[in-house]
Amino acid sequence: MKHVIKRTGVTCLLILVFYLLQTVVFDKIPFLSGAPNLLLVLTFSVGLLRGRGEGMATGFFCGLLLDIFSGGVLCFYALIYMYIGYLNGILTNVLVHEMIILPMLVCLVSELLCQAYQYIFGFFIQNKLQFVAYFKQIVMPELVLTVTAALLGYYVILQINQALERAEQKGAKKFA
After folding, report:
1. How many domains does the chain have?
2. Can you give the residue range of the structural domain that contains 133?
3. What is the distance between the alpha carbons of residues 16 and 174, in angstroms, rounded to a whole number?
4. S-S: 64 plus which of 24, 49, 78, 84, CB 3.0-4.6 Å?
5. Cα–Cα distance measured from residue 97 to residue 59, given in angstroms and rounded to the nearest whole number
């Protein structure tokens, strides 16, 4: 029980830190054409490292945070982030977490899914059909920034996850 509370607290802290970095720090850097989607990096990382349930919960709360502060439709982002966390959680036992190329490919696919969802439900339904312009001006810059940020972000989350697992194993040995 103690470990669950600790993991939940660490995840909540990571959500807050990644949200602030994404919206306050990276959004204000003038030479960047966008901001890396750090909450997506956190969602796919937690899904890959901890499984479907935690990936889904992390994705839901990351998306809900974006929904609340973006002023848009409530649960617009929460839904897609929750699905991304769930889908990445399916890959938990399939991927070798320390090999950085596979998680980066998963990040790339997750970002493309998120962008497709945003295009379909944010632009296409409103009859804004300029897909090529959307892809060049929004998708590509954010994709490059997100995958680049994921190199460091995934590594940090992996290290935190390994530290939490070591603490859990140490605590389990005390009671064995």
Report:
1. 1
2. 2-175
3. 32
4. 78
5. 19
